[in-house]
Amino acid sequence: MRGKTPEDRSLIELLDPVAEAAGYEIVRLRLMSGTQSRRLQIMAEDEHGEMNVEDCAKLSRVISEVLDAADPIQGDYLLEVSSPGIDRPLTRLKDFETYEGYEARVELDRLADGRKRFRGELAGIEGENVAINLEGEEETALVPFDWITEAKLILSDELMKRGAEQREARLEHERASDDAIEE
User: Which residue pairs, CB below 8 angstroms and at least 24 apart, start in 92-98?
Assistant: First the structure.
């Protein structure tokens, strides 16, 4: 899920260690076609699930160095490093645990209960399975993580509140750090 195509997955193998050494984790990577040039989109975050503008610039620089040296992409492309955003994609098993209690849309690579698309409240993980409370269903559905091709949080008031609280906590931490430096 972090990469859709074999080329995406190859780039993830190349860039994961680079991102990790810089203190980040790649959430999703997509090499997309464009009208004039291709676009390499990388969504990443730090260990706290955050990614600000400075982080994007830092990661972009270290990734650019490796891409320039290894030259794994044929032709011209534009590198775009960003945060996963508030209604983020869920690409790692731990994401389903982190965002337990929030609503998500999940798409599978095969039919389960006669359908490929599900929408419901995330109920964590159980082994290698993602637990989802589906609307109108009494029992929690367990979906093998390997069956999931795409999953994304659904923008909601609760999710926006969580994002605002995280932003405020980060700003408070930055203010405290700045005050400590000034003393």
Answer: 92/1, 92/2, 92/27, 93/125, 93/128, 93/130, 93/145, 94/125, 95/27, 95/151, 96/122, 96/124, 96/125, 96/130, 96/131, 96/145, 96/151, 97/124, 97/125, 98/49
- Give the pair of three-digit tokens for residue 23: 């203190």
Residues 92-146 have pLDDT tens digits of: 999 999 999 999 999 999 998 889 999 999 999 999 999 999 988 899 999 999 9
The model's pTM is: 0.86
Cα gap 72→162, rounded to integer Å: 38
Helix pair 53-70, 6-21: axis angle to 10 deg: 120
CB of 105 closer than 8 Å to CB of 115 = no
Q: What is the pLDDT of residues 67-103, one digit of tens each?
A: 999 999 988 899 999 999 988 999 999 999 999 999 9
From the candidate CATH numbers 3.30.300.70, 3.90.226.10, 3.40.50.300, 1.10.357.10, the one assigned to the domain spanning 6-82: 3.30.300.70
Q: Which fold has domain 93-157?
A: SH3 type barrels. (2.30.30)
